[in-house]
Fold:
Amino acid sequence: MALYTKHTEKLYKAALWAGNIVLMLVAVVVSLIYAYHVRTSQIEVKQADFISTVESMKSVSQNYLDSERGYVENWAFYINDRQMTREEALDFLRSINTNPGRYVHIVDMENFDAWSASYSAGHDEIDTYHRFQGELKDWEQLMLDAMWEMYNGTAPKFTVVGRYQLDETVSPAVSVGARITLQTEDGTKDFLLLRAIPTNVLQKTWVFPAEYQSAEVGIMTTKGGYVIQSPSMKSISFPEYIRGYNFQDDYNKVDSFQKELESTDHGVLCYKNFRNEDCLWYYSSFGGNSNLDILGVIRLDELQPENGTWLIVVLICGTLAALVLLDGLYLRQVNRRLRKTAKLAQEASEAKTQFLSSMSHDIRTPMNAVLGMMSIAKSHVQDPEYVTQCLDKAMTSGKRLLTLINDVLDISKIESGQFVLTPSEVLVEKFFKELDDMLALQIREKNLHFTIQKDALPHPVVLADPIRLNQIYMNLLSNAVKYTPDGGSITMRFGEEPAEADKKLTCLVFCVSDTGIGMTPEYQERMYQSFSREINTQVNRTLGSGLGLAIVRQMVDLMGGTITCESEVEKGTTFTVRLNLPIVDQQPVTKQEGHLEDDEVRGLHLLVAEDNELNWEVIEILLEEFGVTCERVENGRLCIEQLLANPAGTYDAVLMDVQMPEMNGLEASQRIRNLDEAALRNIPVIAMTADAFAEDVQACISSGMNGHMAKPIDTIVLLNYLKKIKNKMF
Structure:
C-alpha cells in the first residue's frame, strides 16, 4: 500500500508539472497571437490617423490657395471694368496688395515681359518669366502650360503655377492668376495677372501633432515633380528621389512607380528616405484635373505602438513561470505546512484549554464562596448577625467575580482593537484620595502600614479617562495589598514631571512600593501576558485571574505612557507609571451635590423600563429601601406611552434599560428628547444596563441620557443619582 501511495504521488506530481507546462505554453502562444493582433490593429489606427492628418492639410492648402485665387479674380474684374492702362493697374495693385509677404505680377504672354507691383513706377520691370522662352525642361513646361490655361480661361478650379524663383525675395513661390485686358496706345491687349505666394508661407499652415516628430508634407505634380518641396524631399523629383535611395539603377521599377503615381488618385507607399530609414509615404490628389498631389512622409517607427502589449506578454509568461515554480515549491513544502498547521492547531487547543482551566478555577472559587455563604445564611436565618456576615462575604466574592468578568471583557476588547478611551476632566488630588478611601478597609483588615507621598502638582486638573485611570492604579494597588503579608507596608507616591514632547501636556507620575513577596526575574519577563501568575504557594492561595497586569500594560500603552517595575523576591516590588496627559487650565466648575441623608430621597417616584423580571425585582427593592416608589414598563415603546398617558411631573426620572424588545433604551431616550412638551422632554433619564464599556456609556450619553449605571447595580452609585434627581441637578 505504501509503494502504491508513493507511486501515485509521483504520478500526481508529474501530471501536475506537465499540466502546468502545457498551460504555460498555451498561454504564451495565445498571448503572442493576441499581442500580434493588437499591435497590427494599433499600427493600422496610427497609419489612418497620419493619413487623416495629411488629408486635413490638403484641405487647408486648397482653401488657402482658393482664397488667394479669389483675390486675383476680384482684382482682375476691377481692372477690366475700369479699363486701366498697365501703369494704372500697377498703381492700383500697389495700393490694394497690403500684405508685404504676397507679390503681384503682370505678365505679357507674348514675350514674357513682366512687371511687379512690389516696385515703384519706372523700376517695376522684372525678368522672372523669361525662363519660359526657348527649350524648356519638363517641370518648366508644366508651369508654362498652367499659365496658358489661366490666360485662356481653361484652367481647372484648382490650378497653380509651380515653384519658381521670385526676383523680389530670391525665394521659391507658387502663383494663382487670371486674365486681364489693359489699354494701350494701339487699343487693348490681354495680360496674365499673377499673385505669387512664397512656399514658406504655405508651409506654415501645415502643422503636425507633436507625436509626429519626423513628419513632413509637400506638393507635387501627378508625375512627381516638386511644387512645394519639404527638407527631406531630395533630388529634382519624387520618382528620382525614390529611385536613388531604393531602386538604384532598376529603371523598370522606376517606370512602374511613375505609372502608379499618374494612374491613382491616392496611395500608400513604403520606401526608405535619404537616411536609409523606412518611411511611409502618402499621396493624394487635389482633384478637379488639377494635376497636383499632396505628399506626406513619416518614419515607420513613429507609427509603431508602444511596447505595452509585449510587456504584458512578458509579464504573463513570467507570471506563469513563477506559478510553475511556486507549484513545485508547494509540493516540496506541503508536508511542512501541514505539520505547522497541526502544531498551531494544537497550540490553539492548549491555549483554549488553559483559558478554560484558568476561568474555571477563577470563576468557581468566588462562585463557591457566593453559593456557600448563601446556603449557610439560609440555614441560619434565626441569627441575623451571622446571616449579615455571610451576605457580606457573598457580596465580596460576587464583586470579585464581577471584576474577573470585566477583566476578561476588557482584555478581549483591547486585543481586538475595539477599546475606546473616553477622556474627561480629572481632579488629580481628589482622584488619589478616592483610591485611598477604596482601599482603606482592605488595608485595615491586613494591618498594613499605608503611606501617601504627594509631590508637587502644578497642574491640579488633567484630561484623562477616569474609569481606565482608576483601573490602572487600582490594579497595581490591589496587587500590592494582596501580595504584602500582614503588618507590611505600602507607599503610594504621586506627582508631576515636565512633559518633554509638548508644553500643553504634563507627565503624571504614579509609584506604588510594597514590602511584599516580590517576583522572580523569570516571571518579570512574562508578567504582562494574559493569565500569567507566579508559580508560588503564597500566590496560588491568593485570588486573581492573571489579567490585572496585562490590562494595566495595555491601557498604559493606549494612553501613550510607560510602566516600569523593580522587584526582588521576599523584599518587595515597585511599579512606576508615567502618563503624558493634557493640562486643563482651570478646575472644572461642577454642580454642588447636596449632602442629603439616605432618607432624604424619600418621596421620589420613578418610571423603570426593564424587561427582565428578576432585575426589576432587585431595583424595586433597592428603591423601596431608600423610600422611593416606582412603576415598571417592559420596553422603550411602553415607557414613552406611559409618560404621555400621565400628567407632566408624575415621574421624577426614568431608569432605562438598554437591551429591550420592540424598542431599546437608546431609541426611547432619543424619542423622549424630541417630545413636544418641555416637562416630559427634559425629564432625567438614567441608563441601567449590563453594557458597561466606555463606548456603551458614550452611546447612552449621546442618545440623550443623563447618566449611566452598570449592572449589577451599586447601591452607592444609585443613591448618588437619586440625590441628584432630588436636587434637580439634571
Observations:
- The first helix runs from residue 2 to 82.
